Amino acid sequence: MKAPGVGWPRLAAWLVVVLLVGVTTAASLRAMRQLAPVAPPDVVRVEGLVVAMRPDGTFALREPGHGGWLWLRPAPGAGISLAHLWRHLREHAETDVSYEVERHGMALAWIAD
Predict the structure, then answer these.
(1) Mean pLDDT across the chain
(2) What is the rounded average pLDDT of the residues 15-38?
(3) Which residues, other chains included, contact 66 with Cβ-Cβ below 8 Å and sequence gap of 6+?
(4) How far is it, in rounded angstroms, from Cα 31 to Cα 105?
(5) Given its phi and psi angles, is residue 90 left (phi above 0), alpha (psi -120 to 50 degrees) or beta?
């Protein structure tokens, strides 16, 4: 004798729900990637210490083994957290920065982690 309520209709409903959740998740992730700013292909990656910050968000990075400081400005639309950079400054933590140099010489930071 078959248990009541168990069978193909329940299994089909479960599969439809799993499929809908999967498709919705994939579409949401794709949409979020489309909304994120895209870093240009010619970015330079550097590792160093944040040694100074200005109120406008411009920050200086010192690379180990190099003499001067590299001043960077967050690129418009880049998801760089200034609070995160302030924490790196206070803690003297290593920071990885991907940046591009504008035509007039200013370095625009796209990623800082």
Answers:
(1) 86
(2) 86
(3) 48
(4) 33
(5) alpha
Q: Which of 53, 37, 51 is nearest to 93 (CA)?
A: 51
Which single residue is written with the structure tokens 């809908």?
20
More confident residue, 94 or 77: 94
Q: Which residues have C-beta within 8 Å of that of residue 108, sequence separation ≥ 6?
A: 72, 73, 74, 75, 78, 99, 100, 101, 102
Is residue 104 packed enough to be buried (19+ CB in 10 Å), middle (13-18) or exposed (0-12)? Answer: exposed
For residue 37, give the DSSP letter.
P
Length of the chain as a residue count: 113
Give the whole-angstrom CA distance, residue 74 versus residue 55: 12
What are the CB-based long-range contacts (under 8 Å, 24+) for 52-55? 52/89, 53/82, 53/85, 53/86, 53/89
CA quadruple 34, 37, 41, 46: dihedral, nearest 10: -130
Question: Six-digit token pair at 2?
Answer: 């078959």
